[in-house]
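Bench notes, bay 3.
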Amino acid sequence: MKPIGNRKARLLGTLTGGLLLATGFVSTVSASEPIEHYAIDVRGAHAFVQFRIPHLGFSWLYGRFNEFDGSFTFDTKNPANSTVNVEIQTASIDSNHERRDDHLRNEDFLHVEQHPTASFKSTAFEPLGDDRYRLAGDLTLMGMTDSVEIEVEQIGAGTDPWGGYRRGFEGQTTLTLADWGIDYDLGPSATEVEMILSIEGIRQEPEEASSGD
């Protein structure tokens, strides 16, 4: 009969080896995880939520929202799995004209006291080829939620001068004001507003992405 101590030692060695093998396998899978997590770079002002609307048919009036935040994921192997989440502070609307901005904040337009935020949560991200995508999602504005589609182009991705990794997109969509309860008469040429979105994200390490959830 073989000593019990030797059998225990072999059993312990087998279990330890299996555990190390499993740990190595998990580490390998994690390291090759294709889904990247990004925080939108609002601190560095490398992201913009802008709009434009015709003024009496003579010119374009431009504006933006100065305060917003969000994140997105990008699946490098299957981009259709990518997601976007953004929240906008509606009172931060800025058309470079104080009196006009006060009007845009009141009940004729955004009614920011009653609806202080607007949000977008993606539901689909369809690759169209040549770094172009169709982003679909639920937009919540003025207390209403409806689906919208945004035509998106990836501008670029790569390392930045500070050792980080960034990815950027630009997108455009058109909203009909009346669909969102805005019926103030701006003239026949101004029933729709064009949204112009420029988003740059900084890739987050797994622990950073987890802490932000």
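Next record in the batch:
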Amino acid sequence: MYIDKPLKGHNLMQAIARINRVYFEKTGGLIVDYLGLANELKEALSFYSQSGGRGEITVDQEQALGVFLTKLEIVEQILADCDYQDYFTATTGEKLNILKAATDYVAHPSRKTRFQDAVTALSKAYSLAVPNAHYHVPLLTSPLPDLLANLRQVLLSFSDDCSPLTLNYD
């Protein structure tokens, strides 16, 4: 949600609550504040919450970037023996074969759940780290998070008893 008009009290809390509702794969929302509503939000939180408005109302960007890099390292460790690096410069047909091989690799029972959980955590960390304009981190604009999300989505589309892919795109 992009906030471009003044909101206060109940209206502000209601708008944020609607954005932050979770639904299946949606784990929260992202609010971009163009007006600097932090003080109004703190007042609304203190009035409507039992915490009295204490605590942080925003995520520290340095912390978000650190969490992102940590989660990325976990995913890279899971994929250490998987050859996916050529994916980013490959032709469409080659990309499909690399994606197939990578899917077969992460679909192994010893990696599947760990990979899915790690990519979910990475995706959450990515959504918090991306708005960080202070840092120039090439990974935040690289296609790697999209590749990982695609792998995770392919895995979710298979049942637990499904065998690895047998398609060939040559």
